[in-house]
Design goal:
The chain has about 550 residues and is an alpha/beta fold. Helix content is about 25%, strand content about 25%. Bound molecules: adenosine monophosphate.
């Protein structure tokens, strides 16, 4: 027997409708890409403009299932495009501008995008690439007539002129909640990039799950600044979960340096923000250099790569801001776990609390964890045994775009994340490594992430990365690569002395080298493949 409740498909435009009706005067403040000035709109205006986007896209010939690409920073325009595109059943393909131009061409072609909306920042790059983008019928530049550049891009038009051709007299289309809404390619550290195709239903459920108090903890009284880009895995749901709850949004545009972010945090009264650790490194350095304080910020969510303990301590101890460590991946929409304190750990304080806070945390409802060995046998949740982390849920991918016949789930329907970690009896997960980055020494595993976290706790270290290098006896041994803080030169003996006693002795790196910069991927993670390449001819001492 079926229940007798209403059929109300979980469609994304219902979110912006709700924001406009219930929280209509709440603002979306954006730093303009043109001149860095601030632009203010209300949720009522964002919804109206999204409806105009939808209507204008239909005139442009866009239909259900068509892919429309964006190459854009976090702004109000990008946000209204998202809602407008998915509101006609078309698919927003968020292209990551930090990819190499050839990768950008590859994914646009693979996606078969028909239109490309791009910020001014990217016009020159796309002009160079346009011959390799045969599927793009027209380029819309996210600016107004006054700032429109001279360009060779096909059919180029200023977004505001394009949008002015439609009014908001339009009704969202009706369709199945499983309709595709967004497409995002993984950074592709192995093999080619793979397209993850989100649906309306998966994005709505994901936003509802993670908005709750143990996770993003959003309410209509918050002011949320998503520094994590819309082009990187759904901006960790914030483009949906913030309007869903009525939080004010602050969109930082193209300026992600410490000083620019600080100006927005203080000027707009931001209470909650989220980004990868490298962004927060910039903000903390700015605060240290200027003696700035964070007078309104209450919570910062840090994820995308492991949040160093020293960063959590700096935010909490020096600035009184609570850090939540989060973990996820593109394939998971992207959030998978959050490190908030459950009652079982409420008694923890001081160092013991920071030991908990370095963990990646526990999953919200709609994400199930599984821990197995290489043969797929379940491993104990004892907080010690490392294994493959696998995930299942309604916002986890079951296949990649145009590769539907390649199975990516195990026999129980779990997706192997490629991460290695432990799960403790209270359900907290801790990543020890990517399966391909763990250092295999004498048949045992050493976690490169643990070593990196420890090394960045040294006062002279700005950034640290650890890779395994070949060793005749042990197979692999750890090499610690450090970017020192300006004017500092921490030595090998000093670093090893600092780390001794905090980890097993056989985990201590065999060598320490200083470099000017560590290579990063397009999503801000340490690029271990490039680092291994840099040290290909390196030989360990002795
Ligand atoms: P992406 O799909 O580009 O977001 O990359 C996902 C991968 O980033 C995960 O599989 C992890 O290896 C890594 N990652 C994300 N968040 C964290 C975190 N908090 N700690 C450690 N690794 C993380």
């Amino acid at each position: 027997m079926l229940g007798l409740m209403q059929d109300w498909p979980l469609l994304l435009h219902r979110i912006i409708d709700h924001a406009a009706i219930q929280h209509g005067t709440r603002e979306v403040v954006s730093r303009a890409v043109e001149d860095g000035g601030l632009r203010r709109r209300s949720y009522v205006e964002i919804r109206e403009r999204a409806l105009r986007v939808a209507k204008r896209l239909q005139w442009q010939g866009m239909r259900h299932g068509d892919r429309v690409a964006t190459l854009a920073w976090n702004t109000d325009r990008h946000l209204e495009l998202w809602y407008g595109i998915s509101g006609i059943g078309a698919i927003t393909h968020t292209v990551n501008p930090r990819l190499f131009p050839d990768q950008i061409a590859w994914i646009i072609n693979h996606a078969g995008d028909r239109l490309l909306f791009l910020d001014l920042t990217f016009v020159a790059m796309i002009e160079q690439l346009q011959e390799k983008l045969p599927s793009i019928e027209r380029y819309v530049i996210l600016t107004d007539a006054a700032h429109m550049p001279q360009t060779t891009l096909k059919g180029a038009v200023a977004y505001e002129d394009w949008l002015a051709e439609a009014d908001a007299d339009f009704a969202w289309l009706a369709f199945d909640e499983n309709t595709a809404a967004g497409l995002c390619y993984t950074s592709g550290t192995t093999g080619g990039p793979k397209g993850v195709l989100y649906s309306h239903r998966s994005n709505v459920l994901h936003a509802m799950t993670w908005a709750a108090p143990d996770y993003l903890n959003l309410s209509s009284r918050d002011t949320v600044m998503p520094v994590v880009p819309l082009f990187h895995a759904n901006s960790w749901s914030l483009a949906y979960s913030a309007p869903m709850t009525g939080a004010k949004l602050v969109m930082p545009g193209a300026k992600l340096d410490g000083a620019s972010l600080y100006e927005l945090l203080e000027g707009e009264g931001v209470t909650m923000t989220a980004a990868v650790p490298t962004v927060w490194l910039g903000l903390l350095q700015h605060l240290e250099a200027t003696g700035g304080k964070l007078s309104t910020l209450k919570r910062v969510v840090i994820g995308g790569s492991a949040c160093p303990r020293a960063m959590t301590e700096a935010f909490e101890r020096k600035y009184g801001v609570t850090v939540s460590h989060a973990w996820g991946m593109t394939e998971m929409s992207p959030l998978g776990s959050f490190c908030s304190v459950k009652p079982v750990y409420e008694h923890l304080e001081g160092e013991a609390l920071y030991d908990l806070k370095v963990k990646q945390g526990h999953p919200g409802f709609t994400v199930e964890f599984r821990l197995t060995d290489d043969a797929g046998r379940d491993l104990p949740w004892d907080g010690k045994t490392f294994g493959r982390l696998k995930m299942r849920g309604p916002a986890v991918a079951r296949a990649y775009f145009k590769r539907e016949d390649e199975p990516i789930l195990d026999e129980q329907g779990f997706f192997d994340t490629g991460d290695v970690g432990t799960i403790d009896p209270a359900g907290y997960m801790q990543i020890t490594d990517r399966s391909k980055d763990v250092i295999k020494s004498g048949g045992e595993w050493i976690s490169s992430i643990d070593l990196e976290n420890l090394a960045v706790g040294h006062p002279d270290v700005a950034e640290a990365a650890v890779i395994g290098v070949a060793h005749p006896k042990w197979d692999e041994r750890p090499l610690l690569v450090i970017v020192p803080k300006p004017g500092r030169r921490p030595g090998k003996e000093e670093m090893l002395a600092f780390m001794t006693g905090k980890i097993a002795k056989w985990w201590l790196p065999d060598d320490v080298v200083l470099v000017e910069a560590i290579p990063h991927t397009a999503t801000g993670k340490i690029q271990k493949t490039a680092l291994r390449e840099m040290f290909r001819d390196y030989r360990l001492p002795g």
